[in-house]
Amino acid sequence: MILNYLRIFGHSIHQNALTVCSTRKLFTKEFLRVTEFESQRLKTRKFVQPDTVVETIEFQLRAKNREELIKSFKPWIHVIDRSQCKEHFSLLMKCLLFLRDNPHPDPPKNFNFGPVVMRMFHSLNMSQEAINIAHNFETADLFDDATSPIILCDLLFNNGMYNEVLRVVQRNEAMNEKRDMKTTRLLNCITFATCYKLNTQDHFSFALEIWNKSVKENQHSQAINFLCMNAVNP
Fold first, then answer.
1. Cβ-count burial of 124 within 10 angstroms (0-12 exposed, 13-18 middle, 19+ buried)?
2. Partner of 128 at 20 to 30 A CA spacing, among 36, 87, 135, 168?
3. Model confidence at 14: pLDDT above 80
């Protein structure tokens, strides 16, 4: 079956091979809305001082004031830098856990912090911290939406953390099986690119397993290119 797709997309493979091999980035920051996050970051920094916000957040956590905490937590995510994020990582975890465990009684009014937090890590290029929070058994479910794994995997891919990418993919696969859902085509693209980078028979077999579960007509041509190039690699 894969040979059929090699023939169908043969011309596309030749066109894109140099592009694929010469870059480690799959998606643009604009596509992932990281650029939008960074633009908001510049605006927020004019009005919010990170150190002052930390004191306010710690007070609101002690007071268990959910609504006021959200008002402080949203801008804080946009203004902290790498060193501040490392210093206050435990506080970030506490805020996310508190908001998860104390949801708004009206579910549609619950703000989804997962993608915003992942865009923060992506913007700051903090791949290890992103992994720590995404794989922590207490906070992992906060990033089970459709967008967060894409942003996380792109960050990991850009940093050459290919095995960690597949770890995220496997968790997502297990979650989708429970929900009787298919893996998104964007995550498939990252998966096939990662397996191509790792370039072993086992990784090609894993990519084929994902491919066989996917809706073929909905896949990105670049994802198929990665899969086909992995197939013809020695």
1. buried
2. 36
3. no
